[in-house]
Amino acid sequence: MSAFSDVKADKRFSISSSAANFLTSSIQSATDLISRSRKNSDPLRTRNISIDDDPMRKKILKLRQNDVSDDSANEFCINDDNENDGDNEIDDGNENDTDDDIPTDRRHHLSRTLVQNKTDIGYPDVGVDDYIYENDVKESIENMASFEVPSVFLKQGMLLLKISHKSKKRILFKVDPSNFKFVYKQTSKSKTYEFLVDDIRSIMARENANIYREEFGISKEFERRWITVVFFNHHKNKLKTLNLIADTSRDLKKLLFVIEGFKKLKDNISETLLVNLGDLDEVEKTIVSGKAESTIKQPKKQLSLSDVLKFSKRLNVNVNTDFLEGLYHSVRSDNKTGIDFKEFKNFVKLLKKREDISPIWKSLTKGKEFMYLEDFISFVTEIQGECYDLEKASRIFRRFSSNEDSSAWQEEDWTAFLLSKYSNPLIEEHMDDSYFKHPLNEYYILSSHNTYLIGRQVAGDSSVEGYMKALHKGCRCLEIDIWNNQSDPEAEPIVNHGRTFTNGISLPSVLKAIKKYAFVASPFPVILSLEIHCSNTAQLKVVKLLQEILGDALVQEPINSESTLPNPDKLKYRFLVKVKKSTPFSAIGVDETGKLVSSSTTASFSESNDNFSSKSSLKLRRKSTNNIIDTLSDLGIYVQGTKFRNFSLPESKTFNHCFSLSEKSANSMIKDDGKRNALDKHNRKFLMRVYPSKIRLKSSNFIPMNYWAHGVQMVATNWQTYDLGQQLNESFFAGSYGYVLKPHYLRHALLKSTMRRTDIYGAQKIKFCIDIISAQQLPKPTNSAAINPFIIVEIIGANSVTWDRSSTVGATPIVAGNGHNPCWNSRYAGVAESDHHFMFLRITVHSSTSATTVDDTKEICTLLVKFSSMKQGYRYYPLNDPCGERLLYSTIFMKVNWCTVK
C-alpha cells in the first residue's frame, strides 16, 4: 500500500505498541548503564592535540556550542532530484508561532545537528565531547511506546516547498512510523521518494542553515521557516540535500520535532538494545525492585515471534530469519504462545553471543574462567603492543572488572575493554612541540581540487557544500575558481567551473562558509588557491571581499622579515592566498613538457585514459587571458603562483613561489631520470601543487602516492568522488590536522653519490599478518532481501608483495545470510617491500546475491588504513559506506601484526 494512501488520522501513534510497551519495561532501566557504556565503549575516538590554550580555539569551541551546525559538514557527494517542472512561487502563509500539536515536555530547540560519526577514526576531535549523545536518553526510551506524531504527517502529509538549483516545487511530506521512514512526493505527481531515519546525516534549520538559504538566493524573510536535511540516497550511492520551506513557523516546529524526534528515538533504541543490555541481570534487578514502575504503561506480558522479527528488522539486525526464529523457539516455553521477560533476556544473550570472541578468550586464559591482573598485563604488552606501567594497567583493569573486588575479569569485561578507547586501533603519531614548527614546504598539506563541485567536472553542481565537507574533514588547501557575474556585471563575482554545464555560486557565500568552518577540524592555516578568470574591476571586488569577510585572519603582509616560509604553528587560524603573479617573467615560455608556447594560449587540458573519448563533442576552453592586478597578486605573500618553465630559472628559486602541475606534466617528469631528480630537489625547498587532469570528466582521482613519493606538498584530489584515490588521501592524513611532516629523506638534501638512487630511501621489507576474524552490524544492500557478506583484502602502495603459502589471497569465503556478526577467521600473511609511509591496508566488504558463490556482488562498506598507523593485536576498525561516511555500529574485528625486517 502506498505511503500516501488514506489512513485513519491518529494524532497519537504508538510504535508497534504490542511490542514497544513490553520492551519499554525491559529496556528502560538499562539506560542507567549508558553512562558506563559512554565511558568504556568508545573505541574510535581520536586524540586531542594540546591546543586548548589558544584564544582562537576557545572562540571556535564557543561558536560550536552556540551553533552546533558547525558539526554538520558531514554532507558530501550531494545530489538533487532531476525534476524539471515549473517553479512555484514562495507563499509566506500565515505566521502562527504557537506550539500546538507538539508535546509540552518536548518543546525545545530541535535544530541541533545529528552527526552519526562523532567518533570518526582519523579525523581530529575538536574537543566538544559527546554533546549530541548527552541528551536525555532515558526520556526517549520512556516515550518510545507513545511517541506523538502530529496527525498531518500520518494523513495527507504536510505541504512544503522544496528548493533546488533547478526549481521550486510543492511537495507533501509524510511519516511512515512503523518502518522509521520519511516519504515525500510532488503534489502534481504520483512518484514518491523516501529515506530511512538511519539515513539522516544532519539537520539544520533557521539561522543555522543560512549558508544553504543564501546559496539559493532566498530572502532572509524565509529564514525562520527553512530546514535542510542531509541524508544518504541508497539508490544513487550519494548524499542528498533536501532544502525545504514550511508555510508557517508553526509547521516548521512540527517538522523539526518529528524528524529529530524519530532520529533520536531510533538511535537510542538501537544503542540500548544492542549495546547496553549486556548486563541483563542488572536490568532485571532494577525492574524487580520497582525503580521502573513509574514509566511502565500496561506492559505486554509476552512477545510474539512477529514482534521479535519486526524489531530485529527495524534495528538492522541483519541475520537470516530462520536463525532468529530458531533462537526464539529455543528460549520459548512449550506451553506458551510467546516469550516473557526472562525468556527475552535469554534471547538477547543468545543474539549477542560472539562465536568469534569465545575461542580467543579461552586461548588467552588457557581455559580458565577468569583473567587476572598479571594475565591482563601480559596480554596488553605482548599481544596488543601497549606500553602500560603497573599503575595504569591496574587502574584500567579495575575500571572494567565486574567483580565486586575488581580482582578478575570475565569474558564480558575483556570484550568491553576491546570496545573501549583504551583499544583505539590507531597509533597516536608523536606530535611534540616541534612537529608543527618546520617551514610549510616540509609538510604534505591536505588539498582539494575543484572544491566547489559536488558532482562531475562537466555537469556537476557548484555549491558551498563542497567547502563545508572538505573543511569538516580537515582540508587545508581549497580551490576557488572566480568568474565575472555574466547576469549582472556590477554584482560580486561568482565561483564556478568555467564555461561548463555547472551552476555558479556567489563568492561572498563561499567566503562566509569558509570562514565559519575553516578551523572546526584543525587550527592550522588554510590556503585559498584562487583561479582568477574575471575582469580587473571584478578582481578589485575579490580583494575587498577577502579583506572584509576574512578580516584579520587573512595574511596580507609578511609575519616577519625572513625570506623563508613560516611554519604552521605561527599561522594558526590564518588564511593564506595562493594567486598568480601579476607580472609574468615572460610572455613566451616552455610548457611543462618542454614545448615553446604562448602563456596566454596554452590549452588547459592534459591526456588521460579516464572517461575520454576522441569523438566527444564537448569543447574544452582555453585559459583566460585576464592579467592579475597588483592589488590581488600582492595577497600571495607566502604562496605565489608561478607558471613553470624550468627548474633552473630565477623564479624557481624564490622562497615563496609555488608551481602547479597537471598530473600529465608531473608524470612526464617522473618518468625522466634527470627531471625526476630536479623535481625531488625542488620539492625539498619549495612548494608544488599537482591536480587531476581536466579530462577526468567523472571527477575520478589519480593515486596520490605517486606524487607524495616525490615530495609534492599539495596533491589535490576530487573530494566529491570517494574512489581509491580519495580513500588513500583521507587515510594518509587521518589524525594529522591537515599537515603531515614529510619523511626525513624528502626534506633534506641527498648526497651526490646517491642522488640518482632516491628509491633506496624509505624502502623496507615489512612482514605482516592480518587475521580477519569477523564483522559487526553490516548494513544490508539496497533492494536486497538478504546479505551474504565476504571480504577482499588488498595491500596498496607496496613495490611487491610475497604471500605466505598458507595465506588467504583475495577474497574470504561467503557467510550466508549473516550481516549481524559474520565470522571468517581468514589469515592474510606475507612480506611486502615498500616505504611504510605510503603502504596501506584496504578491506572491502561485498555482498553476493548467492549464498554459495560470488555472483552479482555489491560493495557495501570499506576500510582503508595506513600500515604505519595500525596498532598491534586485537582491534575493532570502523567501516565507511560507499560515500565515505562512517557507519555508526559497523566494524571489522581483526588481529594485526606487522614489523620491518632486514
TrEMBL record:
One of its GO terms (molecular function) is phosphatidylinositol-4,5-bisphosphate phospholipase C activity. One of its GO terms (biological process) is phosphatidylinositol-mediated signaling. Its EC number is 3.1.4.11. Keywords: Hydrolase, Lipid degradation, Lipid metabolism, Transducer. Residues 72-102 have a biased composition (Acidic residues). InterPro entries: C2_dom, C2_domain_sf, EF-hand-dom_pair, PH-like_dom_sf, PI-PLC_fam, PLC-like_Pdiesterase_TIM-brl, Plc1_PH, PLC_EF-hand-like. PROSITE patterns: C2 (PS50004), PIPLC_X_DOMAIN (PS50007), PIPLC_Y_DOMAIN (PS50008). Residues 72-109 are annotated as: Disordered. It catalyses: a 1,2-diacyl-sn-glycero-3-phospho-(1D-myo-inositol-4,5-bisphosphate) + H2O = 1D-myo-inositol 1,4,5-trisphosphate + a 1,2-diacyl-sn-glycerol + H(+). Pfam families: C2, EF-hand_like, PI-PLC-X, PI-PLC-Y. Residues 746-881 form the C2 domain. The production of the second messenger molecules diacylglycerol (DAG) and inositol 1,4,5-trisphosphate (IP3) is mediated by activated phosphatidylinositol-specific phospholipase C enzymes. This is Phosphoinositide phospholipase C. It comes from Clavispora lusitaniae (strain ATCC 42720). The lineage of its organism: Eukaryota, Fungi, Dikarya, Ascomycota, Saccharomycotina.
